[in-house]
């Protein structure tokens, strides 16, 4: 009977269902006794009728239970995007160099891109007539790209925009639930703050799609959602979503069309364990226990559906469901992209066993610092090899990231594993995600793979490669017009389109010659790659050789040296081969430059022990790092590897035995040969300055200047200056009020505090030692400037002598608001190159092009303010030691983005001499000797590689090749 009533052809046709059900009910009723009639009407009891009222729907659901998610088959015939905004004009981007993302990222075409109805309507040669359009009649905006690079929008596979909002405010922290290791039922969309400053900034970096993940404090943190960061008329989180799962806002689901991909956040290793005072073993058990619950539900569903589809309704009851396990059941059905935060071999192994035990595929392992060491293990994942989503250089902040290698993207790509660079915003600020791909490219990832790593590969991993990640007819109109090749340092969008809508009304562009269309020619790192694998991520980092002998460096393009606190040019821009052969020669002996030019160096002919062709390279002063805890720590999050925080007089009881007025000196906590320091040295950062660690308190102590290459503190040149400056921090959100912090500073500067603290502040008062204040807010900086004037005036009335209180601000994200006042007060600043509104105190930023005409640093310089550069990290001093090695790229970035306003010499100065002078080291001879030799380019680009460092004071050259 069942077979005839519900043949295949009928089910699923909703229009016929009521009729069929009616027929069914009537025919059953006719033969029913009174007794069974009563039973039939009893809710939930279908025995009497045998077939439940919604049988067809249930069967449709059962049939669709394992349908693979994906677009409907006719998707590519669409002529209008589901995200199209009425009134958007057509856009004709003409004469572009188009990287399409196709053919494994190898296809580049010359021509046009036509955007219409929110989708890409045509590429290459655009024929308006064939589209039934005309320039005179239709509203078409044209953009002449003048040959510039155009790519699909950037896709950020790992972002916390909206759930870990900026500026940081307690009221908008919706990233980690504290309700247990398993909270798979939570959804990031439910906490999405549409006022996060990150959205607009991300689009300014070319980001057009982001996966918003819950945090990693839970073993299963909840469902993640794909959004586009453009503003919508509706202003709702829902309106940002890209292909949200059916059923998100309705309980009616059409089971006859394929579902959409869903995303689930998993985490292994330290984070969930740390958060729940548990162990890795607990986390894996929590996962297994949860999946076992889901498996029971799934099996019940499958058994139910076997019966329902066979029409065996007797005693079946309702479709078995549990809202709580619904996401995990979908995982087991292979319909969820499992995005797993997982760092090291142990954790991959555990998770891959989990995937095999419960039979579900894994979309990507995120962070995955050790993935490059275990490619064969990754390939054992159930359902196929996951993608690896990682950082370029952000690493070593915790144990499980200690074996990171910047060559990992290359190694994984060579092993055939999909490579994705991701932000973990606000870890790496999403706006600068492309910079991660640029670094990966510098360290060996091929051009096509590097571009794909932030565009097409994440689109594939999201299961959205039918509409994003490629420039192709029918795809979403998300495209970026770049000012130069996207893998070049400083690449900036000239315009960004999302759903065909230009994101910037009047973008500020950096004029650039179209010649910058080639990717940088990156160095050869093959030896380093081999060593990274051979030594399981901990290869020796010291120089290959240290020699006092005579070495001839030839074929140089630039030579700059340091004299005092200035950088001087010996020669620059030797572009022709003959010029370089004649002038681009430098002889070195005992670590000292002894001749410049081929002619001069001829005299040393017989002494020369080796000749190094620098292939257009350079000699430049060693850079100075300030702004992280480099020198005081190895693994930031491992207490036993760091010097640790000082006791703050405002918030701690200082032990009597230490003396209430003790001051801490960083020199006493120095560590040498840390991996961060050695990597920094290999990147041309020859010295560092670090104050004692002050975790959110007021008084830090006395900084030290140290060598990044010395073997230990007692080695030659290890401590360059034992006391540099006195450091304090002032900011909102501390345990005591800002005004209390200022009151303490006033008292200290009055000169009547005793002990060591009093002693050092007396030095500050007399202008003998520089006071460095960590401060972000313009309001607090203004208060400090008046306090400076107040103290100077007081001293003048008391002594009739003018003493200048020497003050430097570090952080100073809002410094531009006080530019004039800072210049008047002769207060310089130590700043990060790319300001970001992490906190309320730093919320007013100069974001730079395309949002503002000038970038922050070149603006400050143009205002006559002395600027020193701190490396761009994650905005937390005690976590940023890894970033020290990137100072060269940060300085180079300023040079590029300033469009010539900041010369190469100035760029070198803000990363070396200016740092010394802003910290009060203005005498000559302080580390003036270290010079860095680069091959293929200089420190300020993605082409130069450090091959030697001249240590004049020590009398030798360190060679790295
Ligand atoms: C495209 O732009 C380049 C660079 O400005 C220019 O040389 C070329 O002539 C342009 N081609 C067309 C077809 O406009
Ligand atoms: C619910 O989702 C559908 C499909 O994504 C969408 O069209 C609709 O606007 C959404 N409704 C609300 C209230 O957000
Ligand atoms: C000098 O450098 C260039 C690359 O800039 C390279 O092509 C050339 O082979 C190098 N050597 C000589 C002797 O020109």
How is the CATH topology of the largest domain named?
TIM Barrel
Ligands (ions, cofactors included): 2-acetamido-2-deoxy-beta-D-glucopyranose
Task: Report on the biggest sheet.
Answer: 9 strands, mixed
- CATH class of the largest domain reads Alpha Beta
CATH superfamily of the largest domain: Metal-dependent hydrolases
The figure for the number of domains is 3
Round the Cα radius of gyration to an integer and report it.
Answer: 32 Å
GO molecular function, one term: allantoinase activity
Keywords: Membrane, Transmembrane, Transmembrane helix
Domain Amidohydrolase-related: 408-493
Organism: Thelephora terrestris
Comma- or semicolon-separated keywords:
3 domains; 9-stranded mixed beta sheet; membrane; 20% strand; 961 residues; 26% helix; binds 2-acetamido-2-deoxy-beta-D-glucopyranose; TIM Barrel; alpha/beta; transmembrane; globular; Urease, subunit C, domain 1; 8-stranded mixed beta sheet; Metal-dep_hydrolase_composite
Describe the protein's topology.
Elements (H helix, E strand, L loop, with lengths): L1 H4 L11 H14 L3 H8 L13 H9 L26 E10 L2 H4 L2 E9 L2 E6 L15 E5 L4 E4 L1 E6 L38 H7 L2 E6 L7 E8 L34 E6 L2 H6 L4 H31 L15 H7 L3 E7 L2 H14 L5 E4 L7 H4 L8 E4 L17 H7 L4 E3 L11 H10 L4 H6 L3 H6 L17 E4 L10 E6 L2 E2 L23 H9 L10 E3 L2 E14 L2 E6 L5 H7 L2 E4 L2 E5 L1 H4 L6 E14 L1 E4 L48 H8 L2 E6 L8 E4 L1 E4 L11 E3 L4 E4 L8 H13 L4 H11 L5 E5 L2 H22 L7 E5 L7 H7 L2 E4 L24 H7 L4 E3 L17 H11 L6 H7 L2 H6 L12 E5 L9 E7 L4 E4 L2
The structure holds 2-acetamido-2-deoxy-beta-D-glucopyranose (3 copies).
């Amino acid at each position: 009977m069942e077979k005839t009533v519900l043949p295949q052809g009928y089910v699923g046709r909703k229009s016929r269902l009521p009729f069929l059900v009616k027929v069914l009910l009537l025919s059953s009723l006719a033969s029913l006794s009174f007794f069974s009639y009563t039973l039939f009407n009893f809710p939930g009891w279908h025995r009497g009728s045998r077939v439940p009222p919604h049988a067809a729907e249930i069967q449709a659901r059962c049939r669709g239970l394992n349908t693979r998610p994906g677009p409907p088959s006719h998707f590519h015939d669409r002529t209008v995007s589901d995200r199209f905004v009425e009134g958007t004009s057509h856009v004709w981007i003409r004469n572009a160099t188009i990287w399409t993302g196709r053919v494994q990222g190898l296809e580049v075409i010359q021509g046009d891109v036509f955007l219409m109805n929110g989708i890409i309507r045509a590429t290459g040669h655009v024929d308006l007539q064939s589209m039934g359009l005309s320039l005179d009649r239709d509203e078409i905006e044209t953009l002449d790209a003048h040959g510039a690079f155009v790519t699909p929008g950037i896709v950020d596979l790992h972002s916390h925009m909206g759930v870990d909002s900026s500026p940081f405010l307690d009221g908008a922290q919706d990233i980690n639930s504290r309700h247990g290791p398993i909270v798979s039922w939570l959804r990031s969309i439910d906490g999405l703050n549409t006022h996060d400053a990150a959205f607009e900034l991300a689009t300014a970096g070319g980001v057009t799609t982001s996966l918003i993940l819950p945090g990693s404090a839970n073993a299963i943190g909840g469902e993640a959602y794909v959004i586009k960061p453009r503003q919508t008329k509706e202003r709702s989180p829902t309106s940002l979503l890209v292909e949200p799962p059916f059923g998100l806002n309705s309980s009616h689901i059409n089971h006859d069309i394929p579902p959409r991909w869903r995303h689930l956040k998993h985490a292994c290793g330290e984070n969930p364990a740390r958060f729940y005072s548990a162990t890795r073993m607990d986390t894996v058990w929590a996962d297994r226990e949860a999946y076992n619950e889901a498996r029971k539900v799934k099996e019940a569903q499958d058994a139910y559906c076997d019966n329902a589809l066979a029409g065996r309704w007797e005693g079946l009851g309702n479709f078995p469901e549990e809202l709580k396990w619904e996401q995990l059941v979908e995982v087991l059905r292979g319909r969820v992209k499992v995005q797993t935060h997982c760092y090291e071999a142990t954790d991959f192994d555990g998770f891959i066993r989990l995937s095999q035990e419960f039979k579900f595929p894994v979309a990507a392992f995120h962070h995955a610092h050790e993935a490059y060491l275990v490619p064969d293990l990754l390939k054992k994942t159930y359902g196929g090899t996951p993608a690896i989503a990682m950082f370029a250089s952000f690493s070593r902040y915790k144990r499980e990231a200690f074996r990171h290698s910047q060559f990992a993207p290359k190694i994984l790509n060579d092993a055939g594993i999909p490579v994705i660079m991701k932000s973990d915003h606000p870890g790496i600020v999403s706006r600068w995600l492309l910079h991660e791909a640029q670094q990966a490219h510098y360290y060996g990832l091929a051009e096509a793979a590097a571009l794909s790593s932030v565009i097409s590969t994440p689109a594939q991993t999201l299961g959205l490669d039918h509409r994003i990640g490629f420039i192709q007819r029918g795809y979403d109109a998300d495209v970026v017009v770049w000012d130069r090749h996207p893998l070049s340092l400083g690449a900036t969008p000239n315009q960004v389109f999302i759903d065909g809508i230009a994101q910037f009304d009047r973008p500020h562009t950096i004029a650039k010659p179209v010649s910058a269309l080639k990717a940088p020619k990156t160095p050869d790192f093959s030896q380093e790659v081999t060593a990274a694998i051979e030594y399981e991520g901990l290869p020796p980092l010291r120089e290959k050789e240290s020699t006092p002998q005579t070495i001839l460096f030839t074929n140089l393009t630039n030579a700059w040296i340091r004299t005092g606190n200035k950088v001087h040019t010996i020669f620059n821009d030797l572009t022709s081969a003959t010029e370089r052969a004649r002038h681009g020669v430098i002889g070195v002996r005992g670590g000292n430059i002894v001749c410049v030019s081929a002619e001069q160096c001829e005299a040393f002919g017989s002494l020369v022990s080796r000749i190094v062709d620098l292939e257009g390279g350079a000699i430049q002063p060693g850079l100075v790092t300030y702004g992280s805890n480099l020198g005081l720590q190895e693994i930031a999050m491992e207490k036993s590897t760091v010097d640790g925080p000082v006791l703050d007089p405002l918030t701690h009881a200082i032990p009597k035995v230490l003396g209430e007025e003790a001051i801490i000196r960083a020199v006493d906590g120095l560590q040498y040969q840390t991996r961060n320091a050695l990597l920094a040295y290999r990147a041309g950062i020859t010295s560092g300055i670090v104050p004692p660690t002050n975790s959110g308190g007021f008084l830090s102590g006395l900084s030290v200047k140290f060598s990044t290459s010395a073997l230990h503190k007692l080695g030659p040149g290890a401590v360059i200056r034992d006391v540099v400056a006195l450091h304090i921090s002032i900011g909102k959100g501390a345990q005591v009020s800002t005004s209390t912090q200022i009151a303490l500073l006033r008292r200290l500067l009055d000169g009547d505090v005793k002990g060591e603290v009093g002693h050092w502040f007396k030095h500050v008062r007399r202008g003998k030692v520089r006071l460095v204040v960590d401060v972000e807010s313009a309001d607090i900086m203004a208060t400090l400037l008046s306090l400076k004037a107040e103290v100077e005036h007081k001293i003048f009335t008391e002594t009739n002598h003018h003493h200048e209180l020497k003050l430097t601000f570090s952080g100073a994200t809002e410094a531009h608001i006080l530019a004039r006042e800072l210049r008047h007060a002769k207060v310089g600043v130590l700043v990060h190159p790319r300001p970001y509104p992490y906190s309320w105190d730093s919320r007013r930023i100069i974001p730079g092009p395309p949002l503002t005409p000038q970038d922050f640093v070149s603006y400050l310089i143009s205002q006559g303010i002395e600027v020193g550069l701190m490396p761009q990290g994650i905005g937390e001093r005690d976590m940023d030691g890894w970033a020290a090695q990137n100072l060269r790229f940060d300085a180079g970035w300023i040079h590029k983005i300033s469009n010539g306003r900041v010369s190469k010499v100035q760029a070198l100065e803000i990363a070396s001499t200016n740092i010394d002078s802003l910290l009060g080291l203005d005498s000559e001879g302080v580390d003036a000797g270290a010079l860095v030799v680069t091959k293929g380019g200089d420190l300020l680009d993605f082409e130069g590689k450090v091959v030697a460092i001249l240590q004049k004071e020590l009398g030798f050259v360190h060679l790295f090749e």
